[in-house]
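EI: anyone free to look at a 212-residue chain?
SC: sure, send it
EI:
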Amino acid sequence: MWKLLTLVGSSVAVFRFFRRLGAVGLFIFSVLDSSFLVLPFGNDLLLIGLTSADRSGLSWIAYVVAAAAGSVVGVLLVDVIMRKTGEKGLQRFVKPKTIEELKQKMQDKAGVTLFITTLLPPPFPFTPVIMTASALQYPRAKLLGTVFLARLIRYTIEAILALYFGRKLIRYMNSDVFGYFVYAMIGVAVVASAFSVLRWLSRKRSAELQHS
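SC: here you go
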């Protein structure tokens, strides 16, 4: 228990570290957030925090572009791996039932499914959809273009809201309630990430045993 609390506490410090880096930190965090890191709303909170604190000029545009570009790079990392593993390797990361559901959606409305999933925040399953699209060899250019456009729209809306409600957001983000919320989200992220890794290792071990 104490180890988990220590890990969560250090994760909050890491979150603040990325915030101090500005647009560069947001880009790096977006790469992690859109690849294999499980952190619900983490990238959105970082964007909102930066935009709310820096309301001068057009700096919010840099934050939006950095976040969207980082998401594209993160998706590219996932795409490179999943495109090589194919549909068989996809079962190590995504449940078979989920795969079948996503395959049906990809066959009917692949572009729309990718756009909506990328545009909307959690709990919509962003990473499983990206993995499935890549494993099924969906064109990479279309995949990355869709992700960039959807993320650009989503982050622009969030930045505008942050500019409009900037002072209220800053007061809220400095409050104890928000601090507890961040701790809770990072706690969920730590547990979910650990669970994902353990599940992947378990399925990999099972596949090796079946093959042998």
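EI: DSSP finds nine helices and no strands in the chain.
SC: 👍
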